[in-house]
Amino acid sequence: SFSDSPVILRILQNWAPRVSPYFDKEHYTYAGHQIVIQESIEYFGAVVWPGALALSQYLESNQEQFNLKDKKVLEIGAGTGLVSIVACILGAYVTATDLPEVLENLSYNISRNTQNMNIHKPEVRKLVWGEGLNEDFPVSTHHYDFILATDVVYHHTALDPLLATMEYFCKPGTVLLWANKFRFSTDYEFLEKLCNIFNTTILAEFPESNIKLLKATVREN
User: Fold this and answer.
1) Does position 15 have pLDDT exceeding 60, yes or no?
2) Rounded to whole angstroms, how far apart are CA atoms 55 and 138?
3) Helix axes 103-114, 82-89, angle to 10 degrees
4) Which domain range does residue 103 map to?
5) Organism's domain of life (predicted)?
6) Residue 10 lies inside a defined structural domain of this protein
């Protein structure tokens, strides 16, 4: 299924030098907008991981191939919200989701970076992988054009619920874009499981950062 060879890219250092005296803020520029992200050192999800930079950069430079304008986009494991903010700037209707303890910082970053812009207002919601999906996101009313996920696979045990969540939201017509740093054998095992369920293509690789960016779509029989 990997017929087209992936493009080889590097993550561009496109964040501005810190003008802010606070150690916990990072400044980025995507799609012509400066984005200020507040990180939180208490929570794993509240730091900008390299996969988020890779996917943000890719969405910005491949707007013709993946046109997000007026599309419904769900980000799972949104963390600091960088990818969701970029998707908003590119014109999407975004729902950014993560664990309850991450939502306050996520909401703060998203509202702060999208508030005075003429874009669809993003939504921030709790989503625990594999839990309460039918109740909280019923299929009849929640169909997404794109599912975005970055660095959701690391050394943790929630890989089966994560896969189940991807499967739940990936309907015919939905495109899953997943960027991840590959470090452990569990990362490759997850990739193998993904390939068994979906039509999967590696769109891009960032060898310096060990990142692969994959596109997955549901197999239609």
Assistant:
1) no
2) 27
3) 30
4) 44-218
5) Eukaryota
6) no
- pLDDT for position 20: 46
Provide the CATH number for the domain around residue 55: 3.40.50.150
- Of 38, 47, 45, nearest to 18 by C-alpha is 38
Is residue 38 situated within a structural domain? Answer: no
pLDDT band with cut points at 50, 70 and 90 for residue 184? confident
> Does residue 187 form part of some domain?
yes
Q: What is the Cα–Cα distance from 121 to 19, expressed in whole angstroms?
A: 28
The pLDDT of 181-197, averaged and rounded, is 93
The burial class, CB within 10 Å (0-12 / 13-18 / 19+), for 61 is middle
Helix (H, G, I), strand (E, B) or coil at 93: strand
Give the C-alpha distances (Å, rounded to integers) separating 103 from 7, 77, 159.
34, 10, 21
Residue 152, classed as helix, strand or coil, is: coil
pLDDT tens digits for 154-170?
767 789 999 999 999 99
pLDDT over 50 (residue 21): no
Biggest CA pair distance of the chain:
56
Query: What's the domain count of the chain?
Result: 1
